[in-house]
Amino acid sequence: MAEIIQEEGGGKKKGKRRAKKHSTHIDMTPMVDLMTLLLTFFMLTTAFSKPKTMEIVLPEKDQKETKKEDKENQIPKWRAVNIILDENDKIYYYTGLIDKPPYPELIETDFSKDGIRKYLLKRNLTLYKKIDSLNVAALKSRKPIPPDTLAKQIRELKKADKVGPIVLIKATDKVKYRNMVDIIDEMAICNIARYAIVDINPQELKMLEEYKKKNSVTANK
Amino acid sequence: MAKVKMAARSPRIDMTPMVDTFTLLLTFFMMTTTFRPQEAVQVDTPSSISEKTAPEKNVITVYISKDNKVFFNIDEGTDTSLHIRAKVLQGVSEQLRVPFTKEQISKFERLASFGMPIKDLPKWIDTDDQNVRDQLQTGIPIDSTDNQLAMWILFARKANPNAEASIKGDAAADFKVVKRVLDILQDYKINRFNLTTNMEKVEVKLDDIK
């Protein structure tokens, strides 16, 4: 580095004689060097995409204990969709409640586009269409609709919904955090009005085990 | 002949436009940069479609690494004169009977997230060696017998009642641990959580389901 600077210093001395002829040049190389350095530093340290968050609200704990029983009974049987998450990114779901036999059958699916999303969208079609048309209208309207108003309208639509599914999300012990976020995300994608994260009950674990046993037998055949 | 002429001309290039652009870019990057203290763990967050940006101030953050260690962080809030971090540390140290010196407390204020049993915390604060620091990060105990995370949350809530809870879990962390953390937070009447995620775009076509 030092050598280069000296060389340039020599160049300046020669240039002095010609200074009147040429326009005055200032050697900007050191400045550019410094700036590139700083620029690179700031570019590398900047995190462009700020982290996003997904907000979830869980029911209060003490209430949960006492009201849980009534609440589960209040859900109309045909609206209840139970989703059981299992290891290796697998999802099992069934509709209805398991208060008494015959127990509903488990259906296996996954997180892909044609998996659980397709089913949830099908169940939630009326509400989804309403919200979708609202969003499209907001995009197309000449007067910009403030996002708060839109969010409020969507919330009201969700509240008034009487036919969409009520999703109960349950997870076995080996489930990864990613799967839980993914399934809550699916709820947001499909505009599900009501969903809850619930502890898995023993009956469901039994059903899951039976389903797996049955499937492994058929797979072996 | 042409070569000789070229050499005679001064080889200088006018760098002014370049300098201009650089200054502009530099200013831009300097203004947009926010410095963040180094985090204790690398957390690879899962992605979601959520577009809400994460709060930067007044947050209690619980990190869950992919090997299921739990880390904790609380920021100073909008008013640094409140010394929230110092208050939290003092509270927890009194409760769990681990003494801290004044120097340790003031140094703790400048540090970021941490994850170790409280008995290792003085050592972590004193050392400046990154390797020693990393070795000490064994996760905050969350068992019901030795629930130190609950203590941290309790005093964080006391010191800064406005703080929101944020959970930054690694995609590969076990949900069991996350659930346990959620339970502990709910014990302290926090029912609203921010799950930190990456942005992801998903398009849904209604034609797909018909």
In helices, the fraction of residues of chain A equals 40-55%
Distance between the first and last residues' Cα of chain B: 77 Å
CATH class of the domain at 76-124 and 164-220 in chain A: Alpha Beta
Q: Report the end-to-end length of chain A measured between terminal Cα atoms.
A: 76 Å
Secondary-structure element sequence of chain B? Answer: HHEEEEHHHHHEHE
Oligomer designation: heterodimer
Largest interface: A-B, 55 and 60 residues
CATH topology of the domain at 76-124 and 164-220 in chain A: Nucleotidyltransferase, domain 5
Q: Which second-level CATH architecture of the domain at 76-124 and 164-220 in chain A applies? A: 2-Layer Sandwich
Strand content of chain B: 5-15%
Strand order of the largest sheet of chain B: 1-6-5-3-4
Give the strand order, joined by hyphens, for the main sheet of chain A.
4-3-2-5-6
Low-confidence stretches of chain A: 1-15
Number of domains of chain B: 1
Describe the structure.
The complex is a heterodimer of chains A (221) and B (210). With 221 residues, chain A is of the alpha/beta class. Chain A has a domain of 106 residues: Nucleotidyltransferase, domain 5 (2-Layer Sandwich), CATH 3.30.420. Chain A is 53% helix and 14% strand. A 5-stranded mixed beta sheet of chain A has the order 4-3-2-5-6, covered by helices on one side. In chain A, helix 7 links the parallel strand 5 and strand 6. In chain A, helix 5 packs antiparallel against helix 6. Chain B is of the alpha/beta class. Chain B has one domain. Chain B has 8 helices and 6 strands; from the N terminus they run ααββββαααααβαβ. In chain B, strands 1-6-5-3-4 form a 5-stranded mixed beta sheet, covered by helices on one side. In chain B, strand 3 and strand 4 form a beta hairpin. In chain B, helix 3 packs across helix 4 and helix 3 packs across helix 7. The longest helix of chain B has 17 residues. Chains A and B meet through helix 2, strand 1, helix 4, helix 5 and helix 7 of A and helix 2, strand 1, strand 2, strand 5 and helix 8 of B. Strand 1 of chain A pairs antiparallel with strand 6 of chain B, so a sheet runs across the interface.
